[in-house]
Amino acid sequence: MITPIIDVTDASKTYDAGTPALDQVSLTVEAGEALAVLGPSGSGKSTLLNMIAGLDRPGSGQVTVDGVRVDELSEAASARFRRERIGMVFQFFNLLDDLTVLDNVLLPARLAGMPAARARARAGELLAYLRADRHARAYPGRLSGGERQRVAVARALMNRPPLLLADEPTGALDTASGEEVRQLLAELNRDGQTIVLVTHDTALADACATRSIELVDGRIVRDTAAVAR
Amino acid sequence: MSATAQRGKRSLKSPLGRIVRSGVSRRRVQAIVMTLTTALSAAASVLAAGLLVGSQAPFQHAFTAQHGSQLTAQFTGAKASMAQLASTARVAGVTAAAGPYATASLHPVTDSGASTPPGLPMGQLTVVGRPGPGGPSDDVDLMSGTWATGPGQIVMNTQGGGWGFGLGAHLTLPDLPGDPTMTVVGLANSVSNTADAWVTPAQLGALTAGTTPEYQMLYRFAHAATDTQVDADRSAIAAALPAGALTGTQSWLAVQLAADGKTRAFVPFVAAFGILALAMSVLIVGIVVSGAVSSQIRRIGILKSLGFTPAQVVRAYILQALIPALAGAGLGLVAGNLLAIPALAHAESAYGTGTLTIPVWIDAAVAAALLALVTAAAWVPALRAGQLRTVDAIAVGRTPAPGRGRLAHRLANRLPLSRPVAIGLANPFTRPGRSGTMTSAILLGAVAVAFAAGLATSLGDVQNALHRDKLGDVTVAVGEGLGGAKLTPVSPKQVTADIAAQPGTSDYYATSQTQVGVAGVTGGVPVVGYTGDTAVAAYQMIAGSWFAAPGQAVVPTRFLKATGTTIGDSITLTEAGHQARLRITGEALDTHGDGMQILTDQSSLDGLRLGPEPQRFSIRLKPGTNLADYVHALNAKFSSTNAQAQPDTDNRATVIDAMEALVALLTLMIVAVAGLGVLNLVVLDTRQRIHDLGVFKALGMSPGQTIAMVLTSVAGIGLVAGIIGVPLGVIAHNYVTPHGQRRRHRHPLRRHRGLPPARTRRTRPRRPGHRPRRRRAPGRLGRQDAHPERLAHRITEVPVLGWVLVDAGRRRPPARDVGGRRNRPPTSRDPPN
User: Fold this and answer.
1) How many Å apart are CA B602 and CA B530, to the nearest integer?
2) Between A95, A97, A111, which is nearest B307 by CB?
3) What is the mean pLDDT of chain B?
């Protein structure tokens, strides 16, 4: 029996005593899958992603990622868990503007204690793979949106995380850059990277997801395997 | 290397180090602001702490630093040789001694380079022949120039101060053969006040050739903390020499009394500014550092999303704050010590002490306190951010918490103001914490400015109040010791007649001083008897009124406390079995005589049968009278008599200038620190609201309107802080100068004289047809004003000082002359009466 890399069981989350952002959500994701989480604004997509990343905790239910109950981790343990097991890509890149591209990419490796030489080699390899190596010494502020997102992906993959989480990765990009990122994620998944991406972009879901779920008002209303690419 | 340093070094090599380095180097404006703030705060703190420490018993500190002379003894060469005098250094109890130095009492006149016109007599100066400023006792501070090394050179003691000699100035000695001229080559400070001036021993020998030599020895003792101990030391010295060799002594306790009297006036001001500067430094450093960390919450969120633990976040941001803080503290310490040179020089001038310096421990303490403060200021928001939910940190780091300021916006919208101004007014309520700190910074700045403005106006009044013992133009001193025994004693009546007849005389009065017993007080109490136009002699009154008739007396606050008396009570003066009973009519602002001096009409003392004759005549000149001509003309009348006229040359202006410069410097620093803090907050706020500003502009807000909105948001805070801060500054000023409070609660004349309000006003508008009262004609020595309320009406009110509330517990009998002369004539060596 294959253990799922993500196992969410009856997870609920309510903010400020209002409508639940997540309502009894259960979900499993197998390693190697590319799951697209779709849904309208406020449907609970980002909340689900944050719970999987250990950035947020469910009010009730369990979230297990790569065999670790992330909903039970302390802040510090959660941070260590993220640096080793999770790669995150955000809509607005969240690169540190005061670090160079190379330093941004190296940061997770340094946090995880990877030897400097190995980290540099890995960063060079990733940047070359993502066609961002010529910007290694530049600061993020000088890059285009697509380039920044490629750097963000490189940073997310630096520690070879078993799980890559992407929150609207094409949301802030123009069409051409969005297409670049779509191809990149699809390529990564083909290489075996497990991906969970939250998006409004059905084209993105179609291009790189092997499966998609749709959330409405905190509940999964649809869960389907995508048409084979 | 310490464990902390090693940890710090490791941190800088780690990912944390990368984050810290980039946080500092790539955020240059913020780093520069933090460096500047810390530097200014460090400088202000060093200066403030230095002044505070320097203001704690400045005389004692300077005295200790100079190994001050605890007993300055005068000997006649007719009775003891130099070898005998030198041998007194081995008398039991003597721990250090300097001398013997030859001394002379000279009567120079100004020539050039003094603040007073040439040709004016300087009175009697004690000039000492001394090879150098150093020594085991009275290690004199050479403030400028050089020590006298050859003939014609003289070093002036800045303790005298009043003549305002600069380097290169000249004075002549007309009472010596050939009228020799001396050139001032150095200015030195002897806290022990052992001489008015110094020359080389050879020069002194030349100046005093043919006369009996006199010598000075400067002693320090194992025990000299009390008058009794000093008396015992004096007796031991006298016993070691032939009888009559010791002709006079000056105890350091007497010098201390005079010095402390001067110092007390300024310590509250300086201390208040010091505390204000320290408070401002703490507040601004806190504001800037915590603001810098708070502005990076989103960055912290990103770091946490990448796997930074809360502890790593806290460490990173503390280090990030400490790097510019360290640089700033270093710069600030250097700047503070440099700024302290002129500032402490001003304080020295005001205090009349020797060189004040910043102790090393202050530098160390300020650096440590600042770094601790920076750490704490960074730690609190960093910890908060570290514990914040990562998603919140990323998502809401740039925007205020929802819901804040809604009410303020609604209320501002109802005002008849343009929209941008209304938004600007309401904006501070969306970030109440930041607005609060900005308000505090502006408030403290406003307090400092209001306080400084109050002080600037009070200082002159304070000095005038302190120098009410003379009218300020000319003093005529009468005494057998003045001018030598060959001179004919002149009667006070004759002096009075001469003064009255001299054109240019406006007002004058005469005083005599003696010591009497007061029931309930141990030791002698100084009493000053006035004759002449006593109303113009009125001191600044704290309560009650100036004496108006024989049998009445005015005393200082300390006297009232020490004797447990109040205004309206009577006191009994005793002397050799005779008694005089006086009723206290007022509480005067007076620090002379250790705050125990009784001021009364001369005829009040008739019952004591003291018979002291007036020794000092204080004269005020008519406007336009030439001071030098007046003094020369009066001295021409006094030629061959034991009276001599001298211009009053107190150092009032110098002290006021020094204090005003000090106040201006400290105010400037406080305002600069406050301004920097406010600027930092405005920049931070504007940066964080850049998205909002973009939205406003997209909606059609013009650049002018945008600027108006931003300015209004600060102006509103500034207005509120100003409205609160200015009265607080006034209250602080009144606290340090409590006259304001006391005046509100009890008007001296109204309460104690029962006069109607109209008569107690300082000034009254002239009524139509009102005939101004004629000014009193001078020269009515011995007459008393028959209308006490008129006298009272002439007493002006000025703000007074905090020191009138000083402790009354310490009581020290006045120093006695070794010869037991209680009514000796005044000399230039005397502390101001």
Assistant:
1) 5
2) A111
3) 72
